[in-house]
Specification:
The chain has four helices and 21 strands. It is an alpha+beta fold. It has a single domain, classed as RutC-like (60s Ribosomal Protein L30, Chain: A). Bound molecules: 3-(2-carboxyethyl)benzoic acid. 3-(2-carboxyethyl)benzoic acid binds next to strand 12 and strand 16. Keywords: Lyase.
């Protein structure tokens, strides 16, 4: 009998799922990301991470990355990973005390290791990175910890052959529990980096935001056989390089305009269609500084988007003290 012709699909899906329905083991699972009070990782169970990002709505879902082929994984020199023929998920969970509270040194160490790891594994294209660490606004050596993080990340990145235009999409958010957790998605072939015409590229921010600019692009567009994915970075109420609005609902509207602008900047239908906006995305993750603002974020999204995509509201600190909310998105 001839095999059924299969519709090609991208090598992974990323979805929010009911924790009751997520099995303990799944041979096709790349990642299971849970949200709560503490950071936890287990080298013997490298597909699972617990992040210290408390959900701000009842019945918190789990984020599940599922592959189209069986996954294998392991843990090597501080890096946990899972992979298929086409994609690599990897993470590092660092105890900062080893670095004497020097987050620049910790970030430089983590990035040097992660960058070497995904290349050695044969997945040279870093598509998307998530960075979580505590006490984001605390000051050290004349800089806040987010600026120290940017400095260390920059130092590791400048040692490898990488152009500005190759920087991955990213998220960097403050937690309230110890531990630095960084995880990423890498592939065999690069995606296309997308910038937002409404915003100065983060890697060109002026020095007043820190001695080294944040090393990330606004989004990565990857055409998998089977369809495009757009991985949109954490997006805040920034126009040009400046924070706009001091009220959460106004910041949310600016974020929605930025998300739409990033989609348009791909220049490709259906993402760039004039009528296409964030309601076309398949996942939104909103980080809210003050838990009490979650209701305004939820209400604002419901008023602006029909339908509201699958949404996860998390408590997290955004990297400038005047930013109250930040939203990342996925089109898949
Ligand atoms: C901004 O646009 C908001 O340093 O990796 C968003 C996403 C932000 C990623 C990062 C920072 C980062 O500047 C902050």
């Amino acid at each position: 009998m001839e095999p059924m012709p299969q519709t090609p699909s991208p090598p992974l899906s990323i979805r929010l799922e009911d924790p009751q329905r997520v099995p303990e083991h799944d041979p096709y699972r790349l990642a299971r990301i849970r949200f709560g009070a503490a950071n936890r990782s287990d080298p013997t169970c490298p597909d699972t991470l617990d992040l210290a990002l408390p959900p701000l709505a009842p019945n918190a879902p789990v984020e599940v990355w599922r592959a189209t082929e069986p996954v294998h994984g392991g843990f090597r020199d501080g890096v946990g990973y899972t992979c298929t023929q086409q994609v690599l998920f990897g993470w590092m969970h660092l105890d900062e005390d080893r670095f004497g509270d020097d987050l620049a040194a910790a970030a430089e160490h983590a990035y040097a290791r992660l960058l070497a790891f995904h290349r050695e594994m044969g997945f040279p294209a870093l598509l998307r990175v998530w960075n979580y660490f505590p006490r984001l606004h605390e000051r050290h050596h004349g800089l806040d910890r987010y600026q120290n993080f940017c400095l260390g990340r920059h130092r590791a990145l400048e040692r490898i052959p990488l152009e500005e235009g190759d920087l991955p999409a990213a998220t960097a958010i403050g937690t309230r529990a110890p531990g630095v957790l960084i995880y990423f998605l890498a592939g065999r072939e690069p995606g296309r980096q997308i910038e937002n015409p409404r915003q100065v590229s983060a890697f060109h921010y002026p020095a007043r935001y820190g001695p080294r600019s944040p090393s990330f692009s606004r989004a990565t567009l990857r055409h998998w056989s089977g369809g495009p994915h757009l991985y949109i970075s954490g997006t805040a109420s920034i126009v040009g390089h400046e924070t706009c609005h001091d009220e959460v609902s106004a910041q949310l509207r600016e974020i929605l305009a930025n998300l739409k602008a990033v989609m348009r900047a791909t220049g490709e239908p259906p993402l760039a269609a004039p009528e296409a906006g964030p309601e076309r995305l398949s996942l939104l993750k909103a980080y809210v500084r003050h838990a009490a603002d979650a209701q305004w974020v939820q209400a604002g999204l419901e008023a602006a988007l029909d339908p509201v995509p699958p949404l996860l509201l998390l408590r997290g600190d955004v990297c400038r003290e005047d930013l109250l909310v930040e939203i990342e998105g996925l089109y898949a």
